[in-house]
Write a structure and sequence with these properties.
Length: 118
C-alpha cells in the first residue's frame, strides 16, 4: 500500500498559511454570498434565506453560526412578537469587503465568459 503524500489534514491555522486561513474562514457554499448580502446593513434570517432560494434552512443556519463563531457577523435577538433575529457584519467582517468586491467582479466576468462559450 502506498503512503499518503500528506499524512494529516492541512489546518490553515496550525500550518500558518495566510491564504489557506482566509479561504478556510469564507469557504462554504453560502458564506461569501452571506457576507456580501450583509454589506447593505443588517438582515433578518428570512431576508437572507429569500436572497438564496436554493439554500436549505439548516445549511443556512449552520453557515451563519460558523460566521458568527469566526467573528465575522453578529447575531442580535430582537424581543417582541414574534422574536426576530438580525445578522450584521462586524468590523472584522467588513474588512473582508476589500476582497469580496473584486471577487464578485471576477465572478461576474467569469460567468459572462462561460455563458459566451456555451
Amino acid at each position: 500500500m502506498q503512503k499518503a503524500a500528506y499524512p494529516y489534514k492541512l489546518d490553515p491555522l496550525r500550518d500558518n498559511c495566510p491564504i489557506n486561513a482566509a479561504i478556510h474562514v469564507i469557504r462554504g457554499r453560502w458564506k461569501a454570498c452571506i457576507l456580501y448580502e450583509l454589506t447593505d446593513g443588517p438582515r433578518r434570517f428570512t431576508e437572507i434565506r429569500t436572497s438564496f432560494p436554493g439554500v436549505a434552512t439548516q445549511a443556512l443556519s449552520m453557515q451563519l453560526r460558523q460566521l458568527e463563531a469566526d467573528g465575522l457577523i453578529d447575531r442580535t435577538v430582537i424581543e417582541g412578537r414574534p422574536v426576530r433575529v438580525e445578522y450584521r457584519l462586524t468590523s472584522h467582517g467588513e474588512s473582508l469587503l476589500e476582497i469580496l468586491h473584486p471577487l464578485k467582479g471576477w465572478g461576474e466576468a467569469y460567468l459572462d465568459r462561460q455563458s459566451a462559450v456555451s
